[in-house]
Amino acid sequence: MSGKQKTGRILMGRVVSDKMDKTVTVLVERRVTHPLMGKVITRSKKYHAHDERNEFHEGDLVQIVETRPLSKTKAWRVAKLLEKSKSA
């Protein structure tokens, strides 16, 4: 085994729910060009991310990284806080 760790994907998104214990729901938006129309449209997807100390709250802009599956729906971990929520 080599000492290199496989690096997973890194995404940036906004926390839309922090109601679960040690888990936050992060909404990630990406802008793509429509294949036929050529118009730029926004695609979004929600990911469940692990938050060990329950320190991230609704409205926070966070960076999440891919990790091994932690539960049935959770395979991401919050790496760092990029921007604190303005409504605090």
What does this structure look like?
The chain has 88 residues and is mainly beta. It has one domain (17-83): OB fold (Dihydrolipoamide Acetyltransferase, E2P) (Beta Barrel). 0% of the residues lie in helices and 52% in strands. It contains no helices and five strands. The protein has strands at 10-17, 23-33, 40-50, 61-66, 74-83. A five-stranded mixed β-barrel has the order 1-2-3-5-4. It is globular and about 45 Å long.
Describe the biggest sheet? 5 strands, mixed, barrel
Question: If helices are DSSP runs of H or I spanning 4 or more residues, what is the number of helices?
Answer: 0
Mind telling me the CATH class?
Answer: Mainly Beta
State the secondary-structure class.
mainly beta
- Shape field: globular
Task: Give the mean pLDDT.
Answer: 93
The gyration radius over C-alpha positions equals 15 Å
What's the count of strands?
5
Helix share bin: under 10%
Q: Work out the count of structural domains.
A: 1
Q: Judging by the overall fold, what is the CATH architecture? A: Beta Barrel
C-alpha end-to-end distance: 47 Å
Q: In what order do the strands lie side by side in the largest sheet?
A: 1-2-3-5-4
Order of helices and strands: EEEEE
Low-confidence stretches: none
Query: What do we call the CATH topology?
Result: OB fold (Dihydrolipoamide Acetyltransferase, E2P)
CATH homologous superfamily title? Nucleic acid-binding proteins
Strand content: over 45%
